[in-house]
């Protein structure tokens, strides 16, 4: 039995036929609250606030894609003002987990990239704290993984569109 949105404690396989869009939105809202609480609980591990952790995650993903990220993109994704994003980036740079590089084609802009430090001990400690989540994911079969992954990718694109306005 698993809590599922506004449906209470239910067997998710039996509930699939009764789930509507509102139930999915409720479940996403509950998930978001749980994720925010988890970020607060794991903050001491990384010695960073929840917004810093999320910013580092975005910059790390962009770095892994080979793109890096403009501060304005990060600001839009996080919904932060120019002054707030500057302070956040300064914290990440001074912590050695992000570097600013000159933008290759725009002299006035910079690109943010994660560093090797962002992949070391603090990330391992956070991964250990998130072990229950990894265990759940590992318990999914191939079809379930594909469905969840596809949904999350599409949701993220939709949320990014909202953030971009």
TrEMBL record:
Keywords from the UniProt entry: DNA-binding
Domain HTH marR-type: 21-157
BP GO annotations: response to stress
Taxonomy, superkingdom: Bacteria
Single GO MF annotation: DNA-binding transcription factor activity
Keyword DNA-binding listed: yes
Keyword DNA-binding applies: yes
Coiled coil regions in record: none
Protein name in UniProt: DNA-binding transcriptional regulator, MarR family
Lineage of origin: Bacteria, Bacillati, Actinomycetota, Actinomycetes, Micrococcales
């Amino acid at each position: 039995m698993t809590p599922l949105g506004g449906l209470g404690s239910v067997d998710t396989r039996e509930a699939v036929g009764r789930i509507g869009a509102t139930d999915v939105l409720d479940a996403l809202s509950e998930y978001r609250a749980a994720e925010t609480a988890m970020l607060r609980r794991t903050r001491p591990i990384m010695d960073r606030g929840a917004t810093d952790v999320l910013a580092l995650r975005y910059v790390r993903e962009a770095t892994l894609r080979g793109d890096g990220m403009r501060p304005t993109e990060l600001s839009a994704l996080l919904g932060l003002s120019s002054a707030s994003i500057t302070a956040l980036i300064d914290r990440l740079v001074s912590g050695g987990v992000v570097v600013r590089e000159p933008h290759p084609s725009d002299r006035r802009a910079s690109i943010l990239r994660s560093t090797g430090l962002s992949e070391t001990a603090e990330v391992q400690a956070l991964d250990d704290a998130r072990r229950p989540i990894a265990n759940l994911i590992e318990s999914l079969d191939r079809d379930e993984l594909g469905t969840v992954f596809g949904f999350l990718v599409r949701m993220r694109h939709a949320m990014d569109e909202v953030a971009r306005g």
